[in-house]
Amino acid sequence: MKTNNIIAIILMVAAYSINANAQIRNKHLFFHIDFAAGNVYTASYPSFLTYGLNELTHSNIFESALEYSVFNGDLGNDKINMRNYNITGFTANELFQNLHPSLKIGYQSSSLSDFNYGAYATAEYQHNHFKSRFEGSDIHHKNTLNRALFGGSLFAVIGNMEKPFRLMFEGGIRYSMCLGYKGPLAIGKEDIDNGISSHWAIKVSTAKGLQDFGVYFDINHFDLLKSENGKLNNWSAGLIWAVTPGQRENRQNVYY
Prior knowledge:
Blueprint: H1 3-23, E1 29-37, H2 40-44, H3 46-57, E2 62-75, E3 78-84, H4 92-95, E4 98-108, E5 115-134, E6 141-158, E7 166-182, E8 195-205, E9 210-220, E10 230-243, H5 247-253
Parallel strand pairs: 1-2
Antiparallel strand pairs: 1-4, 2-3, 2-10, 3-5, 4-5, 5-6, 6-7, 7-8, 8-9, 9-10
């Protein structure tokens, strides 16, 4: 499946779900659209847009994140040094080094007890742009890796709807599919393997303004290179947030 087709499907489902959410405030609907980036400015500026969209939908549907991806590996006896571009730079390589939009939709309990739970399915697109250098060489090579991820997560929420602060724990799995690769580590996407990755997160919601603030980790559990003479591993860590109107009042409006 081509990258453009996957993005189009995500946008179509998102538009339909937003429309449905605007017409029917379903307290059991879990719906989020996340956008993560590997550059400080690329991750921060969309917060102004997501604030407006959250204000418009009276929810915390849209979240932003700053994501840092780590790659390491080798080709036979050749050690490879891999690094990201400058996360505060302004060149195209720096601004668009890592992009990771995702769509999440599922079910959540919504009781006034101190414990709630839920589950969601997710469709994600991940673009990684990083540099690699073979040991003993001064030449840095560009690497571009595009993947689609499909999976789901379970989550638990500590805190009821009447409390301004809530704590959320989530964990799940994704199936990672390579859409394309350009760089010196492989000829193309046919040399990049597919496999399972895990997702872990902890978030806190506050009384006003800042919602779902927390950290997450995405960890690959397979070798990205199909070649027996090489290894390529990857994991990512992110800082996530949603800027939104007072969410405590919005949660109460579901009941009163």
